[in-house]
């Protein structure tokens, strides 16, 4: 897992293999999310694992939460499941200065 600043994270999202994962709750997601992100709530561990198992391990995953703590945990779980191309957004969506959409 790599920890990336907002600037570095944004520059890498142009990759066609990039997948953005939002690991917050549905309530947090509905208050604002990074466009094209996929919501998989890490606070429901069984569901999180079930959904992560469906993902293509050859893709590059850019993971975020509110502040960077849950996304770090999510990246660690994903690494334990065999994922190798993971990037954590340092500071989470609170430090994000890019576009945010409302649900």
Question: Could you describe the 3D structure shown?
Answer:
The chain is of the alpha/beta class. It has one domain (2-95): Rhodanese-like domain (Oxidized Rhodanese, domain 1, 3-Layer(aba) Sandwich), CATH 3.40.250.10. The chain is 36% helix and 19% strand. The chain has five helices and five strands, in the order βαβαβαβαβα. It has a five-stranded parallel beta sheet. Helix 2 (26-30) links the parallel strand 2 and strand 3 (37-39).
Structural class: alpha/beta
Helix content: 25-40%
- Give the strand line-up of the largest sheet: 1-5-4-2-3
Number of E-state strands: 5
Brief overview, please?
The protein has 5 helices and 5 strands. It has 103 residues and is α/β, with parallel strands linked by helices. This is Rhodanese-like domain-containing protein.
Could you give the topology of this structure?
Layout: E1 2-4, H1 6-12, E2 18-22, H2 26-30, E3 37-39, H3 45-53, E4 60-64, H4 69-80, E5 86-89, H5 92-95
Parallel strand pairs: 1-5, 2-3, 2-4, 4-5
């Amino acid at each position: 897992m790599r920890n990336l600043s907002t600037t570095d994270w944004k520059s890498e999202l142009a990759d066609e293999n990039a997948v953005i994962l939002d690991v917050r709750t549905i309530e947090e997601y509905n208050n604002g999310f990074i466009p094209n992100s996929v919501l998989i709530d890490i606070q429901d561990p069984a569901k999180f694992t079930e959904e992560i198992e469906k993902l293509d391990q050859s893709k590059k995953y850019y993971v975020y939460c509110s502040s960077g703590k849950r996304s770090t945990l999510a990246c660690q779980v994903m690494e334990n499941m065999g994922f190798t191309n993971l990037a954590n957004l340092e500071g989470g969506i609170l430090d994000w200065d890019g576009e945010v959409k409302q649900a």
